[in-house]
């Protein structure tokens, strides 16, 4: 496996940052604010319901889509189709929440967002052993860890700056994720799995635990 260059590391780290900011910002800040706007009297119960059911979708999506990406035989590569599908479907889920007039629609939107973004996270994590040789994995993993911390801070900052707009509270992190993931899609030299080839288990099978 060839060593990866600085350009790939930057694109990969940016996509990792974008993936986490769009997952963590609703969990930490914006979902509670949106539920407060829709149902202030029952905020606590509604938030618990939405987060709890969404967590089930997240826990299922992470290993399922990670395993599916391991077995994907596409002329576009193994990971690339799932990167695109995950970020788009998750963004659609956040769009549903932004315009939802009631809690049931918020729940539907959050379940879709959790499924999509945890599929995205599973594939993003699997790219590390796919693309990065062992001698560089310590360095790249350290950079990714910094990106996770930055995503928490940046997400809180965005939420506070856009608290007056339900649409942009959810769509601003989604735009960051869309841009950064699409950049990775274009620079990624994705593997193509032959029909008679079986991929050995990678980090996608034991990828990061789902949030929220």
Any overview of this molecule?
The chain has one domain: MFS general substrate transporter like domains (Growth Hormone, Chain: A, Up-down Bundle), CATH 1.20.1250.20. It contains 6 helices and no strands. It is globular and about 55 Å long. The C terminus is likely disordered.
Which labels suit this protein?
212 residues, mainly alpha, Growth Hormone, Chain: A, globular
Number of folding domains? 1
Total helical elements:
6
Beta-strand percentage range: under 5%
CATH structural class: Mainly Alpha
Radius of gyration: 17 Å
Structural class: mainly alpha
CATH topology call: Growth Hormone, Chain: A
What characterizes the major β-sheet?
Answer: none
pLDDT averaged over residues: 88
Order of helices and strands: HHHHHH
CATH architecture: Up-down Bundle
Q: What is the helix content?
A: over 70%
Give the helices and strands, then pairings.
Elements: H1 6-38, H2 43-70, H3 80-99, H4 103-131, H5 134-161, H6 166-187
Helix pairs in contact: 1-2, 1-4, 1-5, 1-6, 2-4, 3-4, 3-6, 5-6
């Amino acid at each position: 496996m060839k060593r990866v260059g600085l350009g790939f590391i930057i694109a990969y780290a940016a996509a990792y940052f974008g993936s986490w900011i769009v997952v963590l910002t609703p969990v930490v800040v914006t979902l509670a604010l949106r539920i407060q706007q829709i149902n202030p009297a029952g905020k606590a119960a509604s938030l618990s319901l939405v987060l709890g059911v969404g967590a089930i979708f997240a826990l299922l999506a992470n290993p399922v889509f990670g395993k599916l990406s391991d077995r994907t035989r596409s002329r576009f590569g193994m990971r690339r189709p799932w990167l695109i599908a995950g970020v788009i479907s998750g963004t659609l889920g956040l769009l549903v929440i932004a315009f939802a007039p009631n809690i049931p629609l918020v729940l539907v939107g959050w379940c879709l967002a959790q499924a999509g973004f945890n599929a995205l996270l599973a594939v993003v994590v699997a790219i590390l052993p796919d693309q990065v040789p062992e001698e560089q994995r310590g360095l790249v993993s350290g950079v990714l860890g910094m990106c996770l911390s930055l995503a928490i801070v940046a997400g809180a900052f965005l939420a506070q700056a856009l608290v007056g707009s339900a649409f942009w509270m959810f769509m601003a992190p989604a735009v960051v994720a869309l841009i950064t993931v699409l950049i990775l899609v274009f620079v990624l030299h994705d593997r193509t799995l032959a029909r008679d080839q079986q991929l050995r288990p990678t980090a996608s099978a034991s990828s990061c635990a789902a949030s929220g």
